Amino acid sequence: EFKNYIYGKKVALVGPANSDSHLGYEIDSFDIVIRPNFKENSNKPFSVYGSKTNISYYNSYRVAEKKGDIINIHKKLDWIVFKSEKDMQKIGLINDHNKFRVMKDPINFFLFEDPMLPQRIIYDVVSFKPSYFKIFHFDLYNSKNYNESYKSWHLDKKIISNSLRSHGPMSCFIFMKNFHK
Questions:
Q1: Which terminal Cβ of the chain has fewer Cβ within 10 Å, N or C?
Q2: Residue 143 scores a pLDDT above 80
């Protein structure tokens, strides 16, 4: 069903990076708009990020720490996509209105690291052959901070070091560079 939903459509992936570019109208013109770790109104201002959201992909951190956000928004989304079967089960929602699935994993493209959510989303979506795919407002988490609705770290904390070590910024960069080509 997800393949039929994506196949041949214009798809926008909208990230949380801070921006002054008012691209909301363009974003909302896409057939399908995807946002990672979406919670209600986390895409404000709409003039910058657009108001439309059809799909959200959730990482394990969001499922573990912000389960309520997912439960609160699930009926407003067409699809919710999780990193793993275990994450999907943690939410505990069985609902005919929503479609739930586990994303395809690009782990074979990474030597020792684990891909970050943007790389996972891109790999998953393009495997279903949209007619057009455009990425908005992503700095691939290289900025000083995230949008307020996302997890943020101070660089002096051990957790950022562990995350960078497991996600391999160089592997993520190479994946994105190859995808761009």
A1: C
A2: no
Contact (CB, 8 A) for 112 and 168? yes
Amino acid at 65: E
Residue 89: CB atoms within 10 Å? 12
Q: Cα–Cα distance between 51 and 128 in angstroms, integer?
A: 24
The residue ranking higher by pLDDT, 163 or 170, is 170
- List beta partners, residue 12: 33, 134
DSSP letter (8 states) at residue 45: S
